[in-house]
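User: Could you check the structure of this?
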Amino acid sequence: MKNSVKLFCVASLLCGSMIGLVPAVAAAPASSTGTIDVQRVFKGYKETTKAQEQLSKEEAAFKKEFEESQKKLEDAKAANKSAKEIEALTKDLEESLAPKREKLMKMNEALTTSLQKDIISSVKSVAKNLGLEVVFDKQVVITGGIDISDMVISKLNEKK
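Assistant: Sure, the predicted structure tokens are below.
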């Protein structure tokens, strides 16, 4: 579920990035317009799976440490430690988890950025080869345009 939410967020960010890439051509001929299914491209790119696996491992390690810290707090409460001692322990545990949380967020951002760059680069390359001036997310195009999703996926997966 978390990976699906992340994938949707990343796909949404990618879509926004791609819209900013293409010039606004209101009356472009249909032959110069392409479309891609951003989510399908994202799922079809082999590096996406690798990135998700890498992120999942780090999340699991962080989750384990977080649960261990919660256990320490519960044990302290069960041992009738004073509120001051529990507060100090909570602060120590939060301070020890903060850099790990930050590392996880930076890793997610770096992986997302890398995937976005790869996808955008491949879209540009395929569009140029086909003589397309504009490429939109398929979700925003009601009719027209050439779907280049499969070509982009092939281009992405041949690189790595």
